[in-house]
Amino acid sequence: MLVLGRSGEPDEGEMHYRRAIDLDSDFADAYANYGLIELGQKRYQEARTSFKRALAINPYQPDALASLGYLLERERQPRLAEHYYRLAVKCRQNFRRAHLRLASLLINMRRYREAFPELEAVLAIKDAKTPRFLYEAATQYLRAGNRDRARESLQRARALATAYHQTKLLDEMDADRWTLR
Predict the structure, then answer these.
(1) Residues 6+ apart with CB under 8 A from 60
(2) Which letter does DSSP use for residue 54 in this model?
(3) Distance of CA 150 to the CA centre of its chain
(4) Which pLDDT tens digit goes with each residue over 114-126?
C-alpha cells in the first residue's frame, strides 16, 4: 500500500487522504493512511480516531490494528497492545513492522520464548528492507540476552546492507556502541 506523507510531504499526503475520504467515506485504507500521517505528526488522539474509523469499516485493516497497538503501548497498556499487534500479523502475515513491535513488546514483558518467533517472522522476508529489519532484530535479540542470535542477525544485516549499497545503515551500525563484531 502506498502511503503519501511518509516521504517527507505530510501536508500533501494529508490533503490527498482527506480528499479520498470526502469522495468515499467507506475507504478504510484512506482513514488508516491518514492516521499514519497524524501519528507521524504526534497528533495521537486524531490518529486514534482515524484508526478506529478505519476499523469500523474494515475490522481487518492491518495498519490500523498495528498503529492502535503502538498507541496502546505508548499508553502503557501492554496486554491490549499485544492483542492489536497479534491481530495485525494475523491479518497480514508478512507485516514485519507489526512482528517487530510485538517482539519488542514481548521482550519488554520478559516473554522471550514468544518473542523469538516474531523476530524470525521479521527475518523471513528478503528484500532491500531486510538489512534494516535484521539490524533491528539484532538489537531485540541482544535485549533478550541472546548474543549468538544478535551476532548472527547483525552479520547478516551488514552483509546485505553492503550488497544493497546501504551506506547510511552501515554507518549507523558502525556508530552503534553495542555492535558485536
Answers:
(1) 91
(2) H
(3) 19
(4) 999 999 998 888 8
